[in-house]
Amino acid sequence: MFVSENLNINEKGNLTINGADTTVLAQKYGTPLYVMDEDMIRNNCRTYIKSIEKYYDGRGMVCFASKAFSCKEIYRIMQQENIGIDVVSAGEIYTAYKAGFDMSKAVFHGNNKSAEEVNMALDTGVGRIVADNIYEIEMLDRIAGERKISIPVLLRIKPGVDAHTHSFISTGQIDSKFGFALETGEAFEAVKKVLSCNNLEFRGLHCHIGSSILDTRGFVAAAEIMMTLISKIKDELNYEVKELNLGGGFGIRYVQSDDPLPYDEYMNAVAEVVNKYCAENNINRPFIIIEPGRSIVGSAGITLYTVGGRKTIPDIRTYISVDGGMCDNPRYILYQAEYDAIVANKASEPKSERVTIAGRCCETGDMIGENMPLQHCEPGDIIAVCATGAYNYSMSSNYNRLCKPAVVFVNSGSDRLAVRRQTLDDIISNDI
Ligand code: LLP
């Protein structure tokens, strides 16, 4: 009935998430509010870890792509679940470090890391850095030389796989700003370059083909292509690649018609390719890293809004205004992303109308969605938008000087604040 299995209806007819009444949460913490189901997050982590144990003898690591959702509490949870992290900026590194995360399990990504960020990564003990381009390789070698250390480096490769997702979020094809292209020989040259650097330890290869992918074909193709490159490196450069990072990108259910696979199918599919390739070509099996982001936190989250005005334009549409919008969820305006919504205090009523949920920002395109089936709602009702746990809080902004919502974690029915709501003083805190 609901897109996420942690949602239910209680005896009062209110929507619950992991047992907690969403109307009570809205009352207690105010709206807009992000609510995250901690148990679901932990279960997703365990599913991924188990899949590496089951299909690849545990010879790998799960790294949560923290760009999907970053705050101190999530890094604490990842630490407890024995999960690594993917970080892409000083901000993510700092947040994780301050949360007490063991940074040796952090992988530093990005296509334009600054020298300051690289030094910060090294100061905090980040375990691996993924180089995106020749300039970065040279910079990493120089910094390692200055610090008289050796930096473990992976190279980001574009495997040439088009992941058939929204073009803004597919990254494995040749025309992408990320990584070294295979087709042009650039990737192989980059490997030679790293091997020739005195201060770099060449660990392995990385690829990430895109995001919101709902089947394993692209991942299988990418794994095959990466194994072919590993084999070429062994044959021609006599170097055995130790690590293969296959990125993230597994999709989730946003609306009923989405049909994601169980998350362990990802590892099942790629491990089969790698195991077979290694056996047939007499290659040592590389340590595999996977980097799921969305699939760990996406379905675990909802956003609660309070309904303001209704506006019906005859024969055209009905707008329902809520107290958030593109500032807390920019995914509709960016990607025309689809969501499912429920009137939380009327969850057992039928969805009797189709509406446009409009945000409160000064931008015509500011919507949570159009033509959305919804229970009839009135001002003061609470709307829950489902599966907002990934790339909502992390992409939120202060557009129109709106305060970012609080984030609450729910654990077996009990709730706690993880990120407090911004205040108006937060909004002006950097203004001189
Ligand atoms: N690894 C790397 C190197 C990545 O760039 C990403 C996502 C991931 C892992 C995790 O991908 P996931 O499992 O979350 O799909 N803002 C967009 C998504 C951008 C994804 C960027 N990279 C959205 O809201 O859909």
Summary tags:
single chain; 432 residues; nine-stranded mixed β-sheet; eight-stranded parallel β-barrel; 12 helices; 21 strands; globular; binds ligand LLP
Structural account:
30% of the residues lie in helices and 25% in strands. By secondary structure, the chain is of the alpha/beta class. Strands 4, 14, 15, 16, 17, 18, 19, 20 and 21 form a nine-stranded mixed beta sheet that branches. The chain has an eight-stranded parallel barrel with strand order 5-6-7-8-9-11-12-13, surrounded by five helices. Helix 5 (115-123) links the parallel strand 7 (106-108) and strand 8 (128-131). Helix 8 (217-237) runs parallel beside helix 9. The chain is globular, with a radius of gyration of 23 Å. The N and C termini lie far apart (51 Å). The mean pLDDT is 96.
